[in-house]
Structure formats: structure tokens, C-alpha cells
Amino acid sequence: MVGPIAAMESFVFKAFDFSGRATRAEFWWAFLGLGLLTCGALAMDVYTLISLDLADIGMSSLITPWLFLLTFIPYLSLRVRRLHDIGRSGLFLFLDVVPIIGPILTHIMLSMPSQPEENAWGQPPRHVMTRHTPRDAAPGSFAAEAKAQTAAPKPHNAFQSYAYLVNGEAEPTPDMIEQRRAEIRDYYRSRVLGQA
User: For the residues 77-84, what does the mean pLDDT come to?
Assistant: First the structure.
């Protein structure tokens, strides 16, 4: 999951990147940071308006318009990348021009979960991808053992480690070698070639 610092770094350094994808956490942390900055800028502008004479106030003495100008393009690109992450085109941002219902629909789309697989705008970020173990793995196979180990954590047993050391030097049987080759072929087909 993306934290607040990584999200703000992405917001700044990918300011002009309208391709690619942005996760929900990346969007909402940047949204929160931008909201806090806007609140601070508004508070300073209100203080400026209260403390100075209106004749002395110019556009350069207010912070909020400058903040809007500086963050408009990065925020727009972040929203486009967020729409790409759910499999939608950035053109869906034109829904914002529809009064009342448009911005609500846009924010509902921005809140949708990421697509875990590759889409037209690229691979998902690393932390969105899920590990895949075949459901039909043969009992005793490497994939079945990996699935069993991820299902429930077991306490460490020192005797299992010792048994592995003692039996680790034993020659594998031809059946074990063939089973391992089949597992490697299945893994290659599913993970590298993307075949079912």
C-alpha cells in the first residue's frame, strides 16, 4: 500500500504523466494532502484579507490562486492515471461538467478498486498484484505446499529443519523429477505466458 509520503512524491514527480496507473491509496493520500494545503492557504488568505486594507491587496498577496495554478495539472494527471487504474479512459473526467451528478459519479469511479491484471494502460503497481497458486495443484506438489504455507502460519519446528538436512542429500526419484518438471511447465504457462 502506498503511504502519504510516497503518494505526495508521485503527485509531484509524475505531474505531467498522463499515462500509466495510480492506485486508490496514491490518489486519496494526495487528495488529503492537497486538501490540507488548500485549507492552510485559505486560512492565510482570510488572515491577509482581514489584516490589510483592501486597496493594498493584489493577486500576488493571495496564496490560494497560486496554489490552484501550481496543482491543477498534477491533480488532473493524477485523476487520469487513477481512472486508467480502474480500466476507464481519462475522458470520463468530462463528467465533471455535468452539474451536481457529474462530480459525484467521477468521485465514485475514483473510489473503485484497482484492476489486479494488466489493462490498456499498463501493468498494475507492484503492491496491487496478487500471488497465484493453482487451485488444482496435486497433493504433495510444490504449489500445494506453497498454498498450504500461505493459508495458515505454522509455528517453527526445529525437527522439520533437521529432517530436511538429513534427507536433503537423497537422490530424487524419477517420479519426483517428472512431477517437478510438470510444475515448472505449469508455472511458466500461467505466470510467464499468461495461459490458463
Answer: 92
